[in-house]
Amino acid sequence: MSGTLRQCFIESPIGELTLIASEVGLRRISWPHDCVAEGEHIMFDEAHPILAAASKQLQEYFAGDRRDFTIPLDLEGTDFQRAAWLALADVPYGETASYGEQAERIGRPRASRAVGAANGKNPVPIVLPCHRIVGADGSLTGFAGGLEMKERLLAHERAQQSLDI
To answer: Is 50 exceeded by the pLDDT of residue 158?
Structure first.
């Protein structure tokens, strides 16, 4: 997992996103207000194959033409965090699940708070859709991109679903 990271920027309906990849896979999607960590060696390279694929798939998502992502990922985190993050991909497009349901999915039914903490550190939002996780009562809670961004992403997916009918 060492080596130079590559990055590119894409414009989206929710602002400019920064994509960062290793040679293994997509490592991070940063929101417009996020900063790059100090000390990371990152080169701009929009032609990098993983970044090119991620850019294309995200553009398809925002155009309403993609619901699932097939980008290779290079997730750095604890085993628990990676399990929580990967379980996000099981929540269907346009639907929501609670933190408790996500905790049950990973075999840790009493770990809903820990799942919430892990989701707050999800390095690849949208691709691993933490915006689809809501409070037990269905309320929008915690989201690194902000609750307004969470609502916008959910509204985008629901609007696309209504076009399918």
So the answer is: yes
